[in-house]
Amino acid sequence: MSATPGGRSHGPPDDAAQARWVRETPGASKRRHLNNAGAALQSEPALRAVTGHLALEAECGGYEAAALQRDAIARVYEQVGALLGARPNEIAIASSATAAYAQALSAFDFAAGDGIVTTRADYLSNRIMFESLAARRGVRVVEVADLPAGGVDPEAVERELKASPAALVALTWIPTFGGLVQRAEDVGAICARYGVPYLVDACQAVGQLAVDVRAVQCDFLAATARKFLRGPRGIGFLHVSERALDAGRHPLLTDMRGGNWPATGTYTLYGGARRFEQWEMPHALVLGMGAAAAYATAQGIVETSRRAHALAAYARDRLGDIPGVRSLDRGERLSAIAAFECRGRKSSDLVTDLRARGINTSAQELDENLVALNRLEAASLLRVSPHYYNTAADVDALADALTELMASASARS
After folding, report:
1. Are 224 and 321 found together in one domain?
2. Which of 2, 146, 152, 297 is deepest in the core (most CB within 10 A)?
3. Are both 207 and 322 inside the same structural domain?
4. Residue 5: its pLDDT value, please?
5. For position 409, what pLDDT does the model report?
6. For the chain, what is the domain count?
7. Secondary structure of the chain: what % helix, strand, coil (to 5)?
8. Does residue 42 belong to any structural domain of this protein?
9. Which of 299, 327, 347 is at the close of a domain?
10. Closest by Cα among 313, 329, 332, 337 to 149
């Protein structure tokens, strides 16, 4: 991000690549979509993959279409694996990141007193799962300290592992409610040193950051297609390391996709991460996710990440100048998610007002995430999440609209 002679910063310049990204994103010319942390606009290749397979199913039947697309479906494991630096046999397809995360948790035979070491930035669904395990199985949920600047303190993780054995360390790489990027690689190195399994929620990271599961050293990594990866809704995946597979890790409720029933009283597991899948899956969405992964890889994650992060920084600068608007982002490293409190306005109402002006954002209210918002000392949160196909003009339009909406609210009060 650079600055004008008058001192105001401006977003990254548009170029030929950005113009092509807009052309290859059907919705980008119709709305200013700044809700990529919720569900990004799909690329043309992802959309074609989904609609093409649906048409094929309508023409010849669901089983028959899957048979015709057998090779393309098999390539999805390669496409997703290439995005993560993983082998195809380490990828399992799931209906969502939450479903993938739950499958990973169910691979552990938690007993009373077992510790799950986690951070202050858990995704809400993940934390509810931990609390359920605590209530039903007596698991200890241990929340370690943050760094002064925000985000988990890796040394605090190490102190906890030294002090007490843990069954699992869990980390949300990029929280949904703000711009923080946690130190996933540093925590992974500590887990590897102590031999503790490591589960990473990478829902907001995949497609936004360059992800290398070897560098993260995770045993499990869950993500979705619909966010920064720019795939369809209703599909996600789980990376399962060969270390976890060799240890025999598998979900509590394996179905016939993951294993076989050779005789009463026993079952056998199939090789690879497919043991974490379920037999029924939406092949159109699977193919759309594969196309999205291939598209993301082809565009170059390092460059697209740089542009998305620059636009988020520009949003923090522009919106932070609006009276009554306060940035909520803290951390040594910030992501392409920018969060704001708009004093005197419910963020959910602002989302509706902005949507009427052709601008997409998202919100969180206290009744949706009480603990996180209380920690941010915010009554309500407006989330702005640009991606690489967005422009500085999108952010400017948001800033102008929000200035008007905040001024009108101030005038009414």
Report:
1. no
2. 152
3. no
4. 36
5. 67
6. 2
7. 45, 15, 40
8. no
9. 299
10. 332
Residues of the chain with pLDDT > 70, as a percent, come to 97
Rounded CA-CA distance 155/190 in Å is: 9
Give dist(CA 101, CA 284) in Å, integer: 22
Tokens of 356: 């009427």
**Identity at 19, one-letter amino acid code:** A
Residue ranges making up the domain that contains 53: 47-299
Q: Tokens at residue 32, please?
A: 């200013």
Of 299, 329, 355, which closes a domain?
299
Contact 100, 92 (CB under 8 A): yes
Quick check: 267 and 52 in contact, CB under 8 A?
no
The answer on 231 and 168 residing in a single domain is yes
pLDDT tens profile 127-147:
999 999 999 999 999 999 999
Alpha-carbon torsion (121, 122, 123, 128), positive or negative: negative
What's the confidence (pLDDT) of residue 412?
62
Specify whether 126 is located in the same domain as 208. yes
In the block, tokens 């190195």 appear at: 189
Looking at the fold, whether 226 and 327 belong to one and the same domain comes out as no
Tell me how far apart the alpha carbons of residues 233 and 72 are, in angstroms, rounded to a whole number. Answer: 19
Q: Which residues, in sequence order, are CB contacts of 157 under 8 Å at separation 6+?
A: 117, 144, 169, 187, 190, 191
Do residue 99 and residue 164 come from a single domain? yes
Q: At which residue do the structure tokens 């005789």 appear?
A: 263
CATH assignment at residue 275: 3.40.640.10
As given in the structure block, the two tokens for residue 159 are: 């102190």
Which residues in the chain show pLDDT less than 70? 1-9, 409-413
Q: 234 and 87, same structural domain?
A: yes
In terms of domains, do 138 and 242 share one? yes
Residue 40 falls inside a structural domain: no
Please choose, from the candidates 225, 249, 248, the residue with its C-alpha nearest in 3D space to the C-alpha of residue 104.
249
What is the three-state SS of 321-353? CCCCEEECCCCCCECCCEEEEECCCCHHHHHHH
**Residue 53 and residue 287 in contact, taking contact as beta carbons nearer than 8 Å:** yes
C-alpha–C-alpha distance, residues 302 and 211, integer Å: 10
